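Lab notebook, bench 4. Still working through the backlog of constructs that have no structural model yet. Next entry is a single chain of 209 residues. Request: give me the structure tokens for it.
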Amino acid sequence: MTMIMAEPAELTDPEPSVPTAEMELVHRAQHGDLEAYDELIKRYQERIYATVYHMTSNHEDANDLAQDAFIKAFQALKSFKGGSSFYTWLYRIAVNKTINFLKQRKNRLHMSLNDLDFNTENNPDLIALISDKTPRRDAGLKELQEKLNEALLKLSEQHRLAMVLHDVQGQSHEEIAEIMNCNIGTVRSRLFYARQQMQAWMADYLKPT
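Model written out:
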């Protein structure tokens, strides 16, 4: 099988533009065609890896978990009936494995400041820190990153995952509901709660001095 990428890549549209070709590859792989499954890996490895990396903040762990997800998916391939896209089915496998890993290891999560969006455009102090033209950027950015990490770690795995899938990966509410095996209302509720909590935890740090 193709090795997983060593760095997360910039993501594009999360769903393939040619589902018919995808299902053809799946059917071939279900009948033992390893080249077809290898093509599926190449198609989705960057997106799966990027999701796992954003949840673990560790390249080695992300590689291992992504590889395990592809292996498990191959072993369970005959159970895939096409009720959802193969990508969504694979995503769910990778996410479940990562959540279990995080519960066992209690790893820390680190995200880029630009990955999260909770009304940052309304906070001039935060904009000033992120701006490349601001002298205090280098000194303040590290401290702000640490505060963000501390706040993110306070979220449950489910709320953290909802933020990663929506704010980082750009998944729609419908896609996240399929991946997390819940309804759309639950997804919206988790995102709302997570953002409210993040804003509350960061309020003291971000308020003007």
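Notes after review: Confidence is low (pLDDT under 50) at residues 2-20. The CA atoms of residues 85 and 201 lie 37 Å apart. Flag for follow-up if needed.
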